[in-house]
Amino acid sequence: MRFLPFALLLLCAASVAEERPLRFSVIESWAMPLIKVENGEATGGILYDLQMRLAQKVGRKAEMLVLPRKRVQQMLVRGEIDVRCYVNPTWLTESHHQYIWSVPFMTQRDLLVARTPRHITLETLHGEMVGTVLGYIYPQLQPKFDSRDLQRDDARTQELTLLKLDAGRNNYAVSSELTLNWFNRDQPPQHKLQPLQELSSDLASCIVRDEPDVPTMALLRALVQMSNDGEFEKILANYR
Q1: Quick one: CA dihedral 197, 202, 205, 210, positive or negative?
Q2: pLDDT per residue over 114-161, tens digit each?
Q3: CA 45/CA 238 separation, integer angstroms
Q4: Which terminus of the chain has fewer Cβ atoms in its 10 Å neighbourhood, N or C?
């Protein structure tokens, strides 16, 4: 009988060792500082740090699946992704009822951007090609796209959108504030891209799959703890 506790301990340890990694989705069109993708693998960035830390806090490994946006949506419906971070309800086309929302961890701001400062607003912008990201939804611009008052010029990633603007392919583009600031870091003052108007400001959260093979409540509690301990801000500060 005295060997029973030791045997149970070994059994528990083996059970933990066999737990599969948590599957996090990474959308391939994201750019630094949100995520760094090299040879099809996530290797750095805000979401990389956040997701690695989150998996660590619940004692699991993180598997980061770098995928096209449409495939992420399909896998969410099939329950093949455990955690998706950097998402807002207004960005989703389906409800994903099998997932639970976490506390927000950052604010996503989309900006209208140009090469030089100019006095123009969305209301006075007409007849232009606007740099956008393939598959992204822009609610503030959609009425103008629908009426053909403006036209989309889609690029595969947010970084490519800014590179096209910088090269003069378009006069305007839409960029997240984070990506714009990152892009401008190494630009000389006279070549920094200029924000003209804030188009939207949304809180970004994670959704966690609510199934027995996922430590759902532990993940949600870990995100609350990270928020309370200031870990989100520390991660963001590393990329400002």
Answers
A1: negative
A2: 999 988 888 899 999 999 999 888 989 999 999 999 999 999 999 999
A3: 9
A4: N
